[in-house]
Inverse folding.
């Protein structure tokens, strides 16, 4: 940090440089299990260095530890929250083409869903709280599920359990669904008292004539969890964004 400030001077205030440094420090083993460092905090450090001449022993990490608050006591800026996903994308690929600032801007407009280990159902993500790297090298993120309290937060594998939010199937879009497609399907069971959104694959489609306001097609789906097959209407199906 000291040498970069001396060599780059005013350029250290650029957002892209601050974001790169924030990502680097946040992913260090020293920060495992702690709150993320935002690019604004990095910029503040450089600003203080310029104005007041911080002592050499005052590193960025020590400064953050003295002043940061817990994730639950502050509403994180949108760009700071998206940095968890930004770090995940870096972790998954050693080589990436787009600058960090551009990737963060793209991710900030996306919505995500995460897989709960408690019932193997997918829930909308309200916010990403923190991240960690397990002993096996797996990157996990701490998720706050939409509509749930903090005692329901879970650690979820980025690679296996976080993805862009599924999209409800519109009546006019049913012709785009084909057998073999992966969908998110609403599954109810009155005997066991649950109603969950679970991964399923389309087995068969009974296509019926209808207008653009209401779909009357019947979809036979097979749930990935237990291979149970069921007939459902379009209003219980959400498609993957890539479809």
């Amino acid at each position: 940090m000291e040498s970069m400030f001396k060599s780059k001077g005013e350029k250290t205030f650029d957002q892209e440089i601050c974001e790169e440094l924030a990502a680097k420090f946040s992913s260090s083993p020293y920060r495992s299990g702690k709150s993320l460092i935002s690019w604004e905090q990095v910029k503040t450090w450089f600003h203080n260095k310029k104005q007041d001449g911080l002592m050499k022993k005052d590193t960025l990490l020590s400064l953050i530890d003295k002043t940061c608050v817990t994730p639950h006591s502050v509403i994180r800026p949108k760009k700071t929250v998206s940095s968890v996903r930004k770090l995940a994308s870096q972790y998954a690929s050693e080589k990436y083409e787009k600058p960090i600032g551009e990737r963060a801007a793209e991710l900030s407009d996306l919505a995500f869903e995460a897989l709960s280990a408690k019932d193997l159902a997918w829930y909308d993500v309200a916010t990403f709280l923190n991240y960690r790297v397990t002993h096996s090298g797996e990157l996990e993120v701490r998720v706050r599920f939409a509509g749930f309290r903090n005692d329901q937060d879970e650690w979820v594998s980025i690679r296996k359990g976080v993805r862009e939010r599924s999209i409800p199937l519109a009546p006019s879009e049913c012709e785009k669904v084909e057998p073999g497609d992966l969908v998110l399907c609403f599954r109810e069971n009155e005997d066991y008292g649950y109603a969950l959104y679970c991964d399923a694959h389309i087995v068969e489609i009974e296509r019926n004539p209808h207008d653009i306001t209401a779909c009357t097609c019947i979809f036979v789906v097979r749930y990935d969890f237990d291979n149970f097959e069921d007939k459902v209407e379009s209003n219980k199906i959400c498609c993957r964004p890539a479809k």
